Amino acid sequence: MAAPVPTACWVCAAAALLLGCCGAAVASGVQDQAEQFFRSGHTNNWAVLVCTSRFWFNYRHVANTLSVYRSVKRLGIPDSHIVLMLADDMACNPRNPKPATVFSHKNMELNVYGDDVEVDYRSYEVTVENFLRVLTGRIPPSTPRSKRLLSDDRSNILIYMTGHGGNGFLKFQDSEEITNVELADAFEQMWQKRRYNELLFIIDTCQGASMYERFYSPNIMALASSQVGEDSLSHQPDLGIGVHLMDRYTFYVLEFLEEIHPASQTNMNDLFQVCPKSLCVSTPGHRTDLFQRDPQNVLITDFFGSVRKVEITTETVSLDSDLAGFESKLPKDELATEPLKYAEQLPVAQIIHQALMSRSQQKPPREQQHSGLYGVLLLPPQLHKFSSLRNSFLPMFLFIFPLFFCAAYSFIFISCFNLLSPSSMLYVPSKGAVQTQQSLQFLKRNRTCSRG
Amino acid sequence: AASAQLQLAVPVAVVFAPGSVPGDLPRPLPFRDVQEMEISVNLRTSITSRYETVYRSTTAQEEAALNVATAQEADAALCPLQDASLGSLTVYVVPETSSVLPQGVSVYVGKHRSALVRAGGNLATLRTRLRQLTQVMSFAASSIATALSDRVPDSQLGPDARRHLKSSLGYEITFSLLNPDPKSHDVDWDIEDAVNRYVQPVLDKLSLVANFSVDSQILYYAVLGVTPRFDKETSSFILSAHSLPHVINPVEARLGSSAASLYPVLNFLLYVPERSHSPLYIQDKDGAPVSTNAFHSPRWGGIMVYNVEAPGSPQASLPLHVDVDMVRVMEVFLAQLRLLFGLSREELPPDFLLESPGNEGLADWELDRLLWAHTVENIATVSTTLTSLAQLLDKIGNIVIKDDVASEVYQAVASAQSAMAELATGHLHSAFQASKEAVTSSERAFFDPSLLHLLYFPDDQKFAIYIPLFLPMAVPILLSLAKIVREARQRKKEPTKMD
């Protein structure tokens, strides 16, 4: 009985080995196929980051946007593919005790402003119209390239918006609103022209979930910091700066993104878990029904980073280096042979000379009605039809100068009054008065707001 | 998406050399034949391909041209004798025993628009070879599906399907030399001469497709995003395949090429590794070193690593002067340019032999392939754009269409119709020009700044704004009007009442 058993063993072992090898081959083949199927089909990444509120006490919205900007740049998206819209300048705001910085953590741990921030739409350029123009591409032809969203059908776009919002709208610049219907229509216009492959929409405002309720275009995934009826709360104030530095949701998203590096395999399900109700007080929400892939298979770097598809080049062209020089059959651009010169300028010296000359004459000729005091106003000779304004200058001087003198005298009077009676202070000390000593030190130390 | 029924007509001439005529021809030579095949992309889009084939025998000149020793010479001799219009094909059938084609090769595709096919004995094998040939030389179902990738459901195409450059009116090509270690290497590349000698011929041939502009730059202290690994066996540094996607990012911010123009930019980078990381080789997924030492990224461009030999003596003075061998570099860059456009020679039946196009970079039939794909793509884009513009106008009833937008739309429609008509008759050149005009007009109409939907209030918003304003005011006005009317009526009745 001993003989058949070893052969049976051998056969079993051989069969097991064969199955194991086949299994491994099949498994790796299946894994390759699975990788192929679940990978995103994008070739480039874009980001549109919008901060919609102005004024110093909305510092946290600018800090939110800049921290997302910083993460997105760190993970690889270049400035040419980021459209950054900030509605107000916090870094060089006169109320910023530490100029040229925007902090996200208290005790000034992390400066998200950095050295190479490139703001594309700033201050009053951040309007609903400009935002929709950027998204849909209906932009006037004179717009520079850095202000355009030049995405194509293989672009993954990240859109991040923050500010003050309500049920179904987001407030821009304290004067206008964008509704969720308009936003959904803009995304549909983008889809019609295939201006995106996949879109990730993140919003950090009060009642943020209402903004993504109306989306109907495919391939959109949306995250919001709070549900309808809830407020998004801010994180911590810094007593030295005097305002709240960040919103809670974006603060925890920033902490989450700091752990991500360009090669990490973290997926969207982890991003959905960021900032649970215990930390955020509001309930973050997300919407994935319009998205085709399973969020489990969507990498964070598909939207926040720029991981390119590469292929190894295996073919070459064979060139013959001995051929004589090639004469291009296409017409080359003709260089202008005529030297360029300046257009006719305003003859300033001539005008002043004429004005001084006419002062000494009794009757000035018709073209030169400017004389004396008005000579310095430089009315050009062609605009003689505006000389009727001269007659209205006199009453203006009669009113404006006295008003100005009255205002000046009253100002001097009141400030003298203040100096004489120190008890009647006209300003209220701020809560951070204890910290003003330190602030004054900062003021003396580094003021580097020379650039815009 | 809009529905589209396109007909693509390809004029094919099949010329039989003496001794190669198959026995079972349906009619005596010469005769015409039309074969139609339908490529259905989705429910509403279908492409019908018509191969209008003319079968004839060779003329005396063609016979003389085919009696040469090699296929290359035959191809060169036949070139002036054939129909050179874009989109047409000429197939010369040679006898089975002919020595013009090498052993084991049954189809030879030349540099121009002709091919030599070995006779297969009967008509059926000939037809099979002809079908394979037309799929290689003009278009196939896969290339049409790729061109119409917007309309194909995603499950049919893999994620790699849409990686070729989209049809555009112009492209910008930037050559960059990256020198991270100028202290050790003083790199000199004669890019202007290389562009004039090697790149310009290719771009001249492609000038039919789009406008190209070329620029070049040198970047110093530009480091790659990945630290290469040192491999002890080959004592060289290795960049493995899975680290390649992260190489480009830190460099891309400094390339600055995207500030130049609104056209898609193709970047070709030549990286000279630092002294401390030389020599640097790229490894593919299986661990084998790549012969070209280069890789490319779809719709972006390519990178090649150029290794400098170590100096003979360790006391050689730094920096080393390096003269870049531009021929080797341009061979790789031009191959990458072809791959970015989708002109690959990899997937071919085994008995096909393709002639290398030489300095021209691409063969005439490859240009035709590109034109077929781009024309179909342009027409599909125009129809999608105009349909979505019409839908936008339907949705917002009070949108104002300016005159120039209207004229662009009419021009787009006219050009698209003429493109489709030209495609159905087989004139590829005029069809492509018409499709380009159609795309330009439709894009200008669609992206006109005045068509922003925000600027036009829907009617319900107008009601919502004006009714709260005017209704309270209108109530006393209407009531007093009613009172006036009642009083007037009463006054009219009164004289009859009074006595």
Automatic annotation (TrEMBL), chain B:
<keyword id="KW-0812">Transmembrane</keyword>
<dbReference type="GO" id="GO:0042765">
    <property type="term" value="C:GPI-anchor transamidase complex"/>
</dbReference>
<dbReference type="InterPro" id="IPR019540">
    <property type="entry name" value="PtdIno-glycan_biosynth_class_S"/>
</dbReference>
<dbReference type="GO" id="GO:0016255">
    <property type="term" value="P:attachment of GPI anchor to protein"/>
</dbReference>
<keyword id="KW-0325">Glycoprotein</keyword>
<keyword id="KW-1133">Transmembrane helix</keyword>
<dbReference type="Pfam" id="PF10510">
    <property type="entry name" value="PIG-S"/>
</dbReference>
<keyword id="KW-0472">Membrane</keyword>
<feature type="transmembrane region" description="Helical">
    <location>
        <begin position="463"/>
        <end position="485"/>
    </location>
</feature>
<keyword id="KW-0256">Endoplasmic reticulum</keyword>
<comment type="similarity">
    <text>Belongs to the PIGS family.</text>
</comment>
<comment type="pathway">
    <text>Glycolipid biosynthesis; glycosylphosphatidylinositol-anchor biosynthesis.</text>
</comment>
<keyword id="KW-0337">GPI-anchor biosynthesis</keyword>
<dbReference type="GO" id="GO:0006506">
    <property type="term" value="P:GPI anchor biosynthetic process"/>
</dbReference>
<protein>
    <submittedName>
        <fullName>PIGS transamidase</fullName>
    </submittedName>
</protein>
